[in-house]
Amino acid sequence: MKDVISMVKDLSRPKLLVRTAKIGAEDYRRKTHLKRVLGVAALPKSSAALMALLSQEAELNAARRDKDPTYRLAVHLDVLIAIIGETRRHRATHPA
Length: 96
Fold this sequence. Notes:
Elements: H1 4-9, H2 15-25, H3 30-38, H4 46-65, H5 73-93
């Protein structure tokens, strides 16, 4: 089984989507952003947060690819921003 960072590295999304999320991640604030995106009161550890975010992102990406009318780009960006922010946090707290 892959570790969570390997799972993040394996994501392949459109360049414009990733570039926009990276810009948004510069203003990522875990306490407010992650609570809103995950819909939780207590913040999980970064690895648990990443697993939940990756699950949400997979569903959003499937909706995007299927051209589902319920797909919302802003929600997808929020999740990608959180993934980038949590990956940075995880790497900082779990050195290789």
